[in-house]
Design brief:
rod-shaped, mainly alpha, 74 residues
């Protein structure tokens, strides 16, 4: 009976280590995904601002073209 108790104790210790390793892996993946999301949002913010500026400039030039005056766009 003592041997069975020791074996069960070893089994539970092993099982708890496996759970800890699996949980650690999930946390690492979650941190990587968060980092990627932050980089993507930052990149889209920069690209979006530049794209908006370019489109505003094109719109200004198109609007000024009909007046006959030189475009007064930034």
């Amino acid at each position: 009976m003592q041997r069975l108790h020791q074996e069960l104790g070893r089994f539970w210790a092993w099982l708890n280590r496996q759970r800890h390793v699996a949980a650690q892996g999930l946390v690492e993946y979650a941190l990587i995904l968060v980092l990627i999301a932050v980089v993507v949002v930052g990149a889209l913010s920069v690209v979006g601002k530049k794209t908006t500026d370019k489109l505003d400039n094109v719109q200004c030039q198109v609007n000024e073209t009909g007046t006959g005056a030189p475009p007064n766009c930034p």
